Amino acid sequence: MLRVTAKQQLVREIVEVLSVLNEEAKIIWGENGLVVTIVDGSHVALLSAKIGNECFETYEVEPVDIGLELGKMKDLLSLGGSDLVEIDYDKAVGMMNVRIGSVLRILRGLDTSTMDNPSLPDLEFNSRATIDSEKLSKSLRAAKFVGELVDFSIDNNQLRVSVQSEAGEGVNVKFESGELGELSCSEPSQSTYSLQFLEPLTRKLASGITDEITLQFQEKYPLKLTWKTNDGGAEWVYFLAPRVINDP
After folding, report:
1. How does DSSP assign 62-81, residue by residue?
2. What is the CATH number of the domain that holds 109?
3. pLDDT at residue 195, as a whole number
4. Would you state the pLDDT for residue 248?
């Protein structure tokens, strides 16, 4: 049994952020909230969320996994309005009823046995910086004018975002320690990542979802982004594999 109600803002946040990476997700509903972890089709990026039950208006759940087509939820949310989203699910028939105001959408859950069960990497990083989400998004949008790969570098004084094209064109953005909410670095680090995966996500986060994003990275390590929403009740983590260029 699952019966919950939530503000549209919360459901839209979950659906739209997950949709940056994949159009299908396995939602693990537990007694204290939901957990969802997805990867993109090429397994280059991973996104995971823990949404506490306190984020919902009402929450009555017996643990259940539900496979969801995110696009169908986005279609329903596009109707707008201020009504709460009411969701109930009957495991016996595998159907989910989603109501927003006078509109009832009946969705069939996906077969979760065929869906990925990714686990989060357990890594220690030697650097950490917290930055305004709009500043990060703007720097990555600028980097995309020049190329598809972006370099992050960090030391005790600054975080740098840069890209250089073969023709010699480039974009360089520096954030001094005073511009960052947090900056720690045990040794200078640099690593390269794909803007194809990174820029759409940060643009979405900067659209009002979160004010700050924390970055952790080092050479040949994944990039790790973390952020919180809903007064800390929702915790998100994102990993993006590095682009490693082997020397000849």
Report:
1. --EEEEEEHHHHHHHHTT--
2. 3.10.150.10
3. 96
4. 42
Number of neighbours of residue 14 by Cβ within 10 angstroms: 24
Number of other residues whose CB lies within 10 A of the CB of residue 78 = 8
* Domain end position, chosen among 59, 83, 114: 114
Nearest CA to 87 out of 66, 117, 112 is that of 66
Task: Read off the pLDDT of residues 70-108 as tens digits, 9 standing for 90 and up.
Answer: 999 999 999 988 899 999 998 888 899 999 999 999 999
Neighbours of 161 (CB within 10 A): 22
- Do 225 and 189 fall within a single domain? yes
User: What confidence category does residue 245 fall into, taking pLDDT thresholds of 50, 70 and 90?
Assistant: low
Global pTM value: 0.94
Task: Using alpha carbons, select from 47, 43, 9 the residue that is nearest to residue 26.
Answer: 47
Cβ neighbors of 248 (< 8 A, separation 6 or more) are: none
Domain that holds residue 31: 2-114
Among candidates 176, 167, 187, which has minimal Cα distance to 131?
Answer: 176
Residues 169 and 94 in one domain: no
> In 97-151, where does DSSP find H-type helix?
133-144
Helix (H), strand (E) at residue 17: helix 8-19
Domain match, 102 and 133 both: no
Digit-coded pLDDT (tens) for 110-159 = 999 989 889 999 999 999 999 999 999 999 999 999 999 999 999 999 99
Residue 101's DSSP bridge partners are: none
Task: Clarify whether residues 171 and 88 are in a common domain.
Answer: no
